[in-house]
Amino acid sequence: SALPKTASASSVRPFPGSDSNSNWRKKRGSRHGDDSSEALLMHLSGYPIAAVICAEAGVIFGSHAMKPEQVQRNMGQANTLWDGGPILEGRIGRGETNIESVRVTMGLMVQPTVMQNFLSKNDGLARGIGFLARFLFSQPMTTQGMRPYRDPEPMPGLADFHQRVTLLLQAPAATDELGRLISAHIKFDDNAQETWIQFYNEVEDYLGGDSIYSGIRGEASKAAENAARIACCLHVFTMPNHMLIDRRTMADACALMRWYLNEAVRFGQSAEVTEELRNAELLESWLVQKWKDALRAGETPQITVNTIRQKGPNALRGKKGLIDDALELLGDHGRVRVLPMHGTKSKEVFIAPQVIREYS
Predict the structure, then answer these.
(1) Same domain, 217 and 84
(2) Which of 31, 43, 122, 301 is the most buried (most CB within 10 A)?
(3) pLDDT tens, 228-246?
(4) To 5 degrees, how large is the angle CA 213–CA 218–CA 222?
């Protein structure tokens, strides 16, 4: 897959032995956090492989490339690059840029609020033209408050992994006389083909009616192809000299794709969560953390409504009534109980035991 705007170093390198691409040689390993989509295409015209990897992708989703007047064009460009199709760009005074037979890899990490803001403005468009369907989503559950120190476990295979990745990145690209990438075609063996077909049919069965994938039809429609791509990556990493993907590799790829589909389902559900429910979840997380802090300090946990109003989550203390609404919703679902404190006008908040267990 690809993105219209680079946010990090891209693996743009000159053709081996070519002096005509000396400008690209100078840019090898450079960072392109402020590059436009046109700059990415120019790099691809100089070397047909690029990687857009960014740990803070807010710069991308809040960039000029994602402004209303640009977003549809750039999403469409990303789709074309994902599909491997040619891109012909014409600019007055610059001539035409013809991009074909290129490969772009993208990996982005973005804060949930940034992604939610992007989707709130562009979700219909992003889903309608298949932009989101081409990505593999994951949104791991937070482990904050559940990470006591542990000595690092030995990772004997890490050095081998780094060595293999380095060798793959250093391998020169094979190109034809026009500078187009020459790709090796890897196929399934008969057993792998059978496994892939079973996965294809499995996903199709879960697309209809109110089945589990009915809410992510776009992502599910690309699942079989993405599983094949994952299998190819696993195969090249482990068995680069074999031209047939075996059943085990294909089964592993399908297992990974199922996980990504489940993440897409969960991501879609979280995107549909109301503001009231998000506020309740925020307050619940804060309550549990305060309960744990008190136990660690050797104290008896005691949280009052007044304490929440004075020291609770900032997002809930900004507007009148948000804390009361969140407490009411948690109470309606049996997550907390709010009871008067004997001899005072204060009210104490008690967390249900099952909620504590969920966070442990």
Answers:
(1) no
(2) 43
(3) 999 999 999 999 889 999 9
(4) 95
